[in-house]
Every structure is written in C-alpha cells, then in structure tokens.
Design brief:
By secondary structure, the chain is an alpha/beta fold. The protein contains six helices and 14 strands. The chain starts with 7 loop residues before the first strand and ends with a helix.
C-alpha cells in the first residue's frame, strides 16, 4: 500500500485514512549495461516491449544521507536535498536469462564504493550501494529491495538503513523505484508497466557488470514492494535465495516453484491488515490473511507443520521445516521492524525485531 504522497483514502469501512496517490501508468524504462565485466559472457538481447538501452549515473554521494528530488512527507526535511549531477553511459544489452557467473576479476572495477543514484530512462531511479572491500575481485551477494507504493528509494533507505548496513556486511544493495508518477509496482495487472521485465534486466545487468553473485540474491520489499517481491520470485526465471516481505501479505502464484520466504507483518497494520481484507483500490486483489498465506508458501515445498515460538515480548515466529516463516509483530503497524519510524499514522515500529538483519542474514 501507499507510503507517501498526499490524497486521502481509506481501504475499508472503519480503516485508517492515510496519505496516498493513484496516478495513471505509462511506458517503462528498462535497465541495460553499466560497464563491461572482464571475461564476461555476452549474448543477444531479447528485451521486453518497453526496454531502453541507457543508464544515467550521477556521482557517488558524499555522505550516507540520501537526497530526494523533493521533500517527502515520510522523512524529516533534512533528509531531502538537491539532485546530483549526472553522466551517461550506454552499452549493449545483456541477455535477459542465463545468469551463469563470469570471471570476477575486473568485474565492477569501474564502480566506486559507496552509494550512487542511478537515473534510468522513463524517469525511474535506483540507489546502488557498493561495499568498499575489494570491488571487482570477487562476486558479491545482492539484495534487491523494492519500496512501497509512492515511496522513493531514498525514503526506503532512510527507513530500513539497508544500503549502509549492506555495505558494512560486504553485500551489494539496489533499491529501484516503482514506475510512473505514482511510483507503483504492477503485480496485479493494474498498470501498463512491465515490471517483471524491468527487474529481470536489472538483475541480469548487476550480475554481468557489477559482480553480483547469481547464487546469492535476495529480493525484498515493503508494502506493495513486498507484494511485487513475491510476484517476481514466482514469475522470474531466476534462482532467488529467498524473498522477504515486510508489512505485506501475499500468496504464491499457481505456477510458483518452491522458494524460501520470510514474511514480517504487524498484527495492527492499518493498511495491509494482518487478518486480510479488501485492498480498496480498483483492480487490486484482496489482501490475504497472513497465517494462511505463509502456509500456502510452505505447501509449495511440501511442508505442512509449523512451530510457533515467542522470541521477544511482542515477536512470534511461525516456522516451517522448509524455511518458510511468518514473523508476527504484536501491535506492530505498517512499518519496518528495527528501522526508523515514518509516521504515527502507520502504527508502531518495533525495536524487538530487525528486518534488515534478517535480509542480510539470508545472503
């Protein structure tokens, strides 16, 4: 659900009214090559209908504060800043499938350590956080973290602290923005954007040019970004190590293959109700109840028995032997556990559980 632009709505009768915006969809700008990886395999592109062939890179950020294009209602004013200068690099497309690792020596050597903003064609943007240790000489675990509806990569970075903590852990982190003025994700056929093709191309390029390890990729997201993460994990022909959803409840698609999932959800979430309910937006499916949803993911791997454990005063885990896990935050809101609070209207942000640590621990 929405995490940041003004307009009033309520999801269902008696549900909390919150800020949001619903705008129309347009054509997606897809990512292609960043820089050549020494010894990397090359292939012929089979792009989706809206694939573009250029990336625009500004200079690396001078500090860990993430600038935004305009002040955000989700962040203090100090968290927003001016746009960075940009440079442009356009290289041939990479194959959309077949993520066999190439030689790592020299791969990603052109990318300076730190956090950089990628300005993509079609108005899309992403943050890429590159760890300092030996860039270009070994393959790195990769986290793809998807912001919620209306949320910018900078806002998710400030909320989750994921880029800084990923770099400290020696992990590559990329936070791409949703499509169009609404910054949304197309997991319900509600827009004309091909977000699956966008993510497939993005991940292929990160493996090809940024030394991402195709065997150590975790996709995660909050709210609508969590729904999109689950959809992508089922739909893309990629071998994700795990998917992590935060403040979201989603069920696997009928043709989904087994995959490890950790679903982190507050039982007092005012936007994506823990017990399920109507979404409130035209064309969007109802939110499934969290407990049956995790059971459906576990069933993909033949697991039918779960163990419930109280690991902190307000944290209960429901864990299946195949690795599927629901983390219930008692009294938790539409928030990122262990992260920074965003708005009192979204409910409680617990400090008893660390969603970012869980994501990095799965790499």
């Amino acid at each position: 659900m929405g995490l940041g632009v003004p307009c009033t709505r309520s999801r269902s009768p008696g549900m909390l009214e919150t800020v949001c915006r619903r705008l129309g969809a347009g054509a997606i700008g897809l990512l292609v090559a960043i820089s050549a990886c020494s010894g990397a395999d090359r292939g012929t592109a089979r792009p989706g209908p809206d694939t573009a062939s250029a990336l625009i890179f500004p200079t690396a950020l001078a500090s860990s504060a993430m600038p935004s294009t305009r002040p955000s209602p989700l962040l203090p004013a100090a968290a927003s800043s001016r746009l960075l200068p940009t440079t442009t690099m356009a290289l041939p497309r990479a194959p959309a499938a077949g993520l066999a690792p190439s030689a790592s020596v020299g791969c990603g050597a052109g990318r300076a350590a730190g956090t950089t903003v990628l300005a993509l064609p079609g108005g899309r943007r992403a943050l890429i956080a590159v760890p300092a240790e030996a860039p270009g000489y070994r393959r790195l675990g990769l986290v793809i973290a998807l912001p919620g509806y209306g949320q910018t990569p900078e806002q998710l970075a400030a909320q989750s602290h994921l880029p800084a903590r990923a770099m400290a852990a020696g992990v590559l982190a990329v936070l791409p923005q949703g499509a169009g003025p609404a910054r949304s994700w197309n997991f319900s056929g509600t827009t004309g954007y091909d977000d699956l093709a966008f993510l497939s191309t993005l991940i292929t390029q990160l493996v090809t040019t940024e030394c991402a390890d195709p065997a150590r990729i975790v996709i995660a997201g909050i709210s609508d970004g969590g729904d999109m993460a689950g959809f992508a994990a089922c739909s893309l022909q990629l071998s994700f190590r795990a998917v992590v959803t935060v403040a979201a409840s989603t069920e696997p698609r009928p043709d989904c293959r087994p995959i490890r999932i950790v679903a982190v959800h507050g039982d007092a979430d005012p936007l994506d109700p823990y017990g399920g309910g109507p979404d409130g937006r035209r064309g969007y499916s109802a939110t499934p109840s969290a407990i049956p949803a995790i059971a459906a993911w576990a069933a993909l791997d033949g697991c039918g028995h779960a163990i419930a454990s109280v690991i902190a005063p307000h944290i209960v885990t429901t864990t299946y032997s195949c690795g599927a896990q629901l983390v219930t935050v008692k009294g938790g809101g539409h928030t990122w556990p262990g992260g920074s609070p965003v708005s009192a209207a979204l409910g409680v942000t617990t400090s008893e559980y660390d969603a970012t640590a869980t994501i990095l621990g799965l790499i």
